[in-house]
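call fold(seq) -> tokens
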Amino acid sequence: MNKRFSLNDFSNKEITEETYIQFHKLIADDDEEGAIKLLKECGDSFNVNYEYKSRVPLFSAINNRMYDLYDEIVNHPTFDCGIEDGFGETLLESLLYLRGTDEIPMTENDTANLDRMIKTVLNNKKFDFNVTDLNNDTAINVACEYPKLLWVVEELANKKEVNPNIVNDFECTALTNAIRHKNIEAVKILSKRNDITVRTIDLEEADKVGIDLADFGFETAIKLKKVHEYAMA
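ret:
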């Protein structure tokens, strides 16, 4: 028979494996209040990244729509910003996929809370926005795929430390993804950066979907267009 725990069992006591297991169980049982209480009682030394049976507390909280617990975990001193879910996705990328696609039905309240969770990450100085997932995608690569995430593209593009030229395993950068998904507004946002690398594949993909990158001020595209016009004259 499974042992029943009381939160008082862990108050002012050494944190053990049982403490972490109970934390997971509270989340699994949809007891958000209990999980937050346990976390606060254990203090700053509690490892919020403790994995149990391939489950990570943060992603379990997200899946169970425990938005307050999410805030507590992300802002905890022991939180690891580079933590990944079971699919090799980083926290921000996991949230972006969830928000960008329509795979999981969401209420208006869910959507608002999800946006708040994304903003929490974007405003957290501990996060490395250039970290890559299983497919070598970064957050800005992913955000450029979805028109509904334009506000995320803009926030990331405005961060000087964000590298928009990281190439994923499918030979796509943020610009390539924006082009392939005909996300014109994302292309416009990226064009404001003076460090965007326009590659041959970008020009080819843009031509396929009827986008003239020279119209957005990309220097490489403008130069190649002039060369082409000169050759045709």
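The radius of gyration is 22 Å.
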